[in-house]
């Protein structure tokens, strides 16, 4: 059998990854290989190679004799991940502040205007996308491939929780204020303040997710 081109299983992995992030394949759901092959019009070989990629990324879990399931992020996982990613993204904000030029700041200004408009309109999904774009912009500006690689791996896991934190009471406006604080520090060229503001933003996001989980639990408890 000829080897399967990397581009094919990479494409399949990308399509499945986006379905996981979009919630089309929700946490805990079983991936039926036969159905996926039929829907994606591919053979088992590239599908299984794609599944291996997503298992390695932590987006899927493989159970012997049962198959693959979309990973579920636990509260314990979040407690362990957020302090780490807060440190890393804080450092990215520090380096981005040091390296940003006028054109970069202008581009960030547009992204923050979009974020403010989404918050004003109460558009959770759009706000989430704008928020994600801003974080990506800071990571890109930091221009540190090692930092970007580790943050990227962790952010894939956190996207399983998606924008649940934005459903916490008042969280969208709090998140907006935190983002504006980071941006203000960048414009002031205060690297340390930008780093601290970004770390605070990430840790408060964890607090918001914890509040959402508590509220959900209280509704389920008789």
Automatic annotation (TrEMBL):
Residues in the signal sequence: none
Top-rank taxon: Bacteria
Coiled coil: none
Record's keyword terms, sorted: DNA-binding, Transcription, Transcription regulation
Residue ranges of every copy of the HTH gntR-type domain listed in the record: 6-73
Organism expressing this protein natively: Acidovorax delafieldii (Pseudomonas delafieldii)
GO MF, any single term: DNA-binding transcription factor activity
Gene3D superfamilies for this protein: GntR ligand-binding domain-like, Winged helix-like DNA-binding domain superfamily/Winged helix DNA-binding domain
Record protein name field: DNA-binding GntR family transcriptional regulator
Keyword Transcription: yes
């Amino acid at each position: 059998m000829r080897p399967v081109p990397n581009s094919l299983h990479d494409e399949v992995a990308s399509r499945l990854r986006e379905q996981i992030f979009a919630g089309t394949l929700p946490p805990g759901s079983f991936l039926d290989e036969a159905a996926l092959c039929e829907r994606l019009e591919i053979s088992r070989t590239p599908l299984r190679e794609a599944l291996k990629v997503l298992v390695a990324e932590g987006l899927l879990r493989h159970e012997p004799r049962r198959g693959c399931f979309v990973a579920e992020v636990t509260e314990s996982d979040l407690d362990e991940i957020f302090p780490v990613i807060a440190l890393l993204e804080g450092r990215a904000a520090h380096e981005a502040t040091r390296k940003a030029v006028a054109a970069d700041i202008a581009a960030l200004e547009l992204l923050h205007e979009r974020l403010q408009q989404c918050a004003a309109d109460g558009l959770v999904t759009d706000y989430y996308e704008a928020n994600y774009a801003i974080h990506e912009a800071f990571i890109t500006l930091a221009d540190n491939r090692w930092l970007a690689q580790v943050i990227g791996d962790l952010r894939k896991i956190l996207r399983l929780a998606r924008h649940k934190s934005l459903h916490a009471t008042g969280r969208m406006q709090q998140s907006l204020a935190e983002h504006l604080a980071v941006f203000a520090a960048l414009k002031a060229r205060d690297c340390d303040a930008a780093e601290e503001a970004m770390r605070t933003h990430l840790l408060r996001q964890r607090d918001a997710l914890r509040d959402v989980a508590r509220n959900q639990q209280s509704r389920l408890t008789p």
